[in-house]
Design brief:
The protein has about 450 residues and is mainly beta. The protein contains 5 helices and 29 strands. The two termini are about 35 Å apart.
Length: about 450
C-alpha cells in the first residue's frame, strides 16, 4: 500500500468517525465543541470535531481596509459589513462564486467576497440609507451578476462586471406613495423564479405601514395591504403563492395571505408566536415554514396552517416538552429539496436537516458562542455570558445567524470564539470593537447524501 493511499484511507476513516459522532446528536444531546482559535483574517482553522476548514471572511475595519480600501475611509467600516447576513437570504450569487454582505450605518457600500479564493475583493454600491432595513441586498434569482437594493422609495437593480468589479446601478421602479420601501423590513426575498417580491414601507401622507406585492419583470404594483406598526417582517413563499408575515394584533402570531388580493384576505394562522424561520419546499412541492422552539424543530404548511413537529422523532407530539431547545435561526438550502440549516442558540451547533427525513440532524460545525460559563447556577450568572439560564442568546451580536448558499456548499455564520470572555467569569456582549466576525465552512457533497429521504 502506498503512503498516499494509506493517508487517504486514514483521512476517510477519521472523517467517518467525526461525522458518526455528530450524527449521535440527532437524539437531542447538546454539542460539546472542542476549543477552536479564531482564524486569522482570510485564513482558516480546521475544526477538530468535523475535519472541515473554517474560514474567517470578515474582519476589523483595519483588516478589511488593508485588503481593499473603503471608499469613505477605515473609520466608516462597521461591524455589520464585517459579519452580517440574514439567514432567510442566501449570501451568494447563482454560481456561488461571490458573496455580498449587508450595507451599514448610512454607508452606501457593501462587502463583496470571491468565494473560491476566500478573499474580500471589492466594496460595491448599496443604499444611501433612509430606513435601517434598507441595509439588506438581494442577489437576482436568474442572473449571476445582478443584485438589488432599495433606496428611499426606489428599487435599484445593479450589475457587476466580474472582470473589473465595476458596478452599474439603474433605477428599476419608484413607489411614489411610499416614504421608503424595504424588502419585507429587511427579511424578504424573491420567489424562486424571481418574478414576485413583497416590499414594505410607510405611506408618505398617512404614516400607515403597508405591504406592497410586486411583479418584478412587468413592474406591476398589486393592491397593497395596510398592516399594524408592530409587524417585524414579511416575505413571499418560494412558489410565489402566499405572503407570510408576523402579526401582533389581535395576538402575536405568524400568518399567511394569498399573494394575489392580499389586501382583502383574512390571514391564516401558521403558528401562535414569532420565531426566526425560513421557507422550504418538501418532496411533494408543498411550501412549509420551518422554525425551532423549546419543543424541537417545527413546520407549518403555508397554504393551510397544518402544524407538525419534525424533530426529535422520539417525541413528536405537539404538546410534549422534551429536554431540548432548537431555538435559533433557520435558513433554507434552496437547491436541496426539504433541506434547511439550523444555527442553534443552545449549544452553538450548525445543523443540516431535511423535513422529509426527520430522523437525521446532521452536525456540520459550531459557532462556539456556546452556552457561556460552565457552572453558571443563576440567571444573573448566565446573563453575564450573553445567554439565559436555558442557553438562549440574549445579545444579537452573539447569535450565529447561520446562512447558506443555494446548493448548500457554503455555510456562513458569525462567531466571536469567546473573545470577550473575562477572567472574572463574565462576558462583554457589546464591546466597542466587536469581534463577531463572519465565517464560512465548505460542506462536502457527501453530507447531503446522508440527508436524502
Amino acid at each position: 500500500m502506498t503512503i498516499k493511499l494509506y493517508l487517504a484511507l486514514l483521512l476517510c476513516f477519521w472523517s467517518s468517525v467525526l461525522f458518526a459522532q455528530s450524527l449521535d446528536l440527532k437524539n437531542g444531546q447538546d454539542a460539546k465543541p472542542s476549543t477552536l482559535a479564531m482564524p486569522d483574517f482570510q485564513q482558516f482553522q480546521t475544526d477538530p470535531d468535523t475535519g472541515l476548514q473554517v474560514w474567517r471572511l470578515g474582519g476589523s475595519a483595519e483588516e478589511m481596509q488593508s485588503i481593499v480600501p473603503y471608499p469613505n475611509g477605515a473609520e466608516a467600516v462597521t461591524i455589520l459589513q464585517a459579519q452580517h447576513f440574514y439567514s432567510r437570504t442566501s449570501p451568494t450569487n447563482l454560481s456561488e462564486t461571490y458573496a455580498l454582505s449587508a450595507s451599514s450605518a448610512k454607508q452606501p457600500y457593501a462587502a463583496l467576497w470571491h468565494l473560491p479564493t476566500h478573499k474580500l475583493v471589492a466594496w460595491v454600491p448599496a443604499a444611501k440609507e433612509t430606513h435601517i432595513q434598507q441595509r439588506q441586498l438581494l442577489w437576482d434569482k436568474n442572473l449571476d451578476h445582478v443584485y438589488w437594493y432599495t433606496q428611499s422609495n426606489q428599487l435599484i437593480r445593479a450589475e457587476i462586471d466580474f472582470k473589473t468589479l465595476q458596478v452599474r446601478s439603474e433605477l428599476w421602479d419608484t413607489f411614489s406613495d411610499f416614504d421608503y420601501v424595504t424588502f419585507g423590513w429587511g427579511e424578504g426575498d424573491f420567489s424562486d423564479k424571481g418574478e414576485k417580491l413583497v416590499l414594505s414601507g410607510r405611506d408618505q401622507r398617512t404614516d400607515t405601514l403597508y405591504f406592497q406585492p410586486y411583479l418584478v419583470q412587468s413592474k406591476t404594483k398589486l393592491p397593497r395591504r395596510a398592516v399594524e406598526p408592530e409587524v417585524n417582517w414579511a416575505g413571499v413563499d418560494p412558489k410565489g403563492e402566499y405572503i407570510v408575515f408576523d402579526q401582533h394584533q389581535p395576538n402575536t402570531r405568524t400568518v399567511s395571505v394569498p399573494f394575489e388580493k392580499a389586501d382583502q384576505a383574512t390571514p391564516t394562522e401558521l403558528y401562535p408566536h414569532l420565531k426566526h424561520s425560513d421557507f422550504v419546499l418538501d418532496q411533494h412541492n408543498d411550501a412549509w415554514i420551518v422554525y425551532g422552539d423549546w419543543r424541537g424543530l417545527m413546520a407549518s404548511r403555508v397554504k393551510d396552517g397544518v402544524l407538525k413537529k419534525l424533530w426529535p422523532v422520539e417525541s413528536t407530539e405537539l404538546n410534549v416538552e422534551p429536554n431540548i431547545t432548537l431555538s435559533g435561526h433557520v435558513a433554507r438550502v434552496p437547491k436541496r429539496t426539504g433541506t434547511v440549516l439550523i444555527s442553534r442558540h443552545y449549544d452553538g451547533g450548525l445543523y443540516l436537516f431535511n423535513i422529509d427525513k426527520p430522523s437525521t440532524l446532521h452536525y456540520v460545525g459550531n459557532s462556539r458562542h456556546g452556552r457561556g460559563a460552565v457552572g453558571a447556577k443563576t440567571k444573573q450568572q448566565a446573563q453575564r455570558w450573553g445567554v439565559t439560564a436555558d442557553g438562549e442568546v440574549t445579545f444579537y451580536k452573539r447569535e450565529a445567524r447561520g446562512a447558506v448558499s443555494p446548493s448548500g456548499r457554503y455555510v456562513f455564520f458569525t462567531s466571536d470564539y469567546q473573545s470577550y470572555a473575562t477572567s472574572t467569569g463574565g462576558y462583554e456582549p457589546e464591546p466597542e470593537l466587536c469581534k463577531a466576525y463572519l465565517n464560512m465552512i465548505e460542506v462536502p457533497e457527501s453530507t447531503y447524501e446522508v440527508l436524502q429521504p
